[in-house]
Amino acid sequence: MRAPILLALAVGLGLPVAGCAEDRALSADRLEDEVAALYPAGDAGARVRVRCDDGLEASEGATSDCRVDVGDERAMVRATVTASGDEGPRFEVVPFVPAERLARELLGILVEEEYVVGEVLCLGDLLGRPDESVTCTAEPPAGGRRTIVEAEVASVRGLDVSVRYRGVE
Question: Which of 31, 46, 81, 95 could form a disulfide with 62 if both were Cys (CB 3.0 to 4.6 A apart)?
């Protein structure tokens, strides 16, 4: 799996970053600015664009997903509040691979290996952290034996989350 390889600050590894807002929450616009500042373009001509689904509430565990575009490359990151205080929420930003993308990639790999597969479903997004994994199920088109596959983080470099797949059953 290939996502943008960018120069990333400490947040690429999921370290906490302080976010500030007067109302103790971050609007989507402010979160987009904060995330964009964390991922500078490696090429002078590349433009960094960030689009977040929502703002970030000031409660621990609150999340917001953002799409990061750098030139022609795209990645997804998830901002998660780790603490909240007078200065606003503290949050970490971690790249991730959406479940739908994992399923599409795994389907392509299985078809290329000549498996007969009708559908692949992954149980969640794969967060770009060491030792993270997600279970996927490959179903044949007309019943039969399904295949269970584990999608695991092989490595993370900036926004680039490399994935390896291994059969479970």
Answer: 81
